[in-house]
Amino acid sequence: MGLYDRYLATRVRRSDADLPETVALVITERDLLGDGAYRTLERFFDWAVQYGTDTVVVYVSVLDEEAIPTLQRELESVTAPQEIAVRVPDDETTADAPIQISIGLGGQSEFATAVQKLSESVDEGTLDPNDIDETAVEEHLVFPTDPDLVIKTGAERLSDFMIWQSVYSELYFTDVNWQNFRLRDYLRALRDYQERQRRFGR
């Protein structure tokens, strides 16, 4: 760790402000094509755990659906400090591991599937429409975790990942490309988060 990294780490640790318990990272399939891309992801997991994160959610946006099986195989084999759950578009099983990875499963699709399941329950008579609330929706999401901090690398552009869950999240955009993402970039995101006053829509 360089001098500047140690300085940032000290600022983060000595701050009275809370650190994010849940961090989401948004990258693209192209980000994972570069040399060392998966090693950077492994380090990211280590950094997150080191600085108090309980849950890490990674969204890999995909343009070429044929790349999904390869991405799934590679991501399921990365080294991580905690259990990993990888989900692809046709897997509707709830991701409940400390590290959750979505490959090409956008928030619009995830939300639509949750609504369909609720509708089926109403049709079957097992659910009263009046009982449908935020909790009912969240129980049918693949990623039922609300991120405190969402980090988007490479460009200041939103994706449709976790559109329901991230409504009150703090968004952090960095123009640093994933292949160049370092500890100092993660620490900068944490410092930015600590300096914000969260309002949760109020």
Automatic annotation (TrEMBL):
InterPro entries: UPP_synth-like, UPP_synth-like_sf. This is Undecaprenyl pyrophosphate synthetase. The keyword Transcription regulation does not apply. The keyword DNA-binding does not apply. One of its GO terms (biological process) is polyprenol biosynthetic process. Transmembrane segments: none annotated. Coiled coil: none annotated.
